[in-house]
Amino acid sequence: MKQLALLAGLASLAATSGCVTSEPAGLVGSVQDFGGFASKPGATVQLYVFDRQSNNWEAAPDTTVTARTTPTNYGGRTIYSWTMDDVNLLETAADECRISPFCNPAPGDSSIRIQFREVGGDFSPLLTFDDGGVSCTVDAVSAGADLFGAAWNCKGVIFDELSVRIIG
Fold this sequence. Notes:
This protein is mainly β. It has helices spanning 89-94, 133-142, 147-154; strands spanning 19-20, 31-38, 44-51, 56-66, 72-74, 77-88, 99-100, 110-119, 162-166.
């Protein structure tokens, strides 16, 4: 399963104008924190989950945050950090059979597909990374690359969503 490479403590890292920079723990019933960067000050960021019954992405209730208005400059880009704290993915998944492959999955045999969208922003859904993608981006920017180009070259194969394993 694809996992995001950034840890929440890497506040100094900016992936691209629009990215998710927290690693989901994948533990059922636990709350998780997510964070990243948006392209505009005060941008609205919303968590979306994939509903396997309707085959559509749907906004998860009560999962909207506002990006900060204080800019971060990194790799030639101006970006705005955001955090979404205390997200209970189990509640989110249970809303409408969003856990795969079964509505009542066996422990350790399920995942939930999530993505973050910058509502009305330049990049929606936000860019995510496989293991190593963030350090790849940091290395490229440190060598003089533009942030956007570095992040795009270092992104995961499936770069617009996360598949978070549900462990029961």
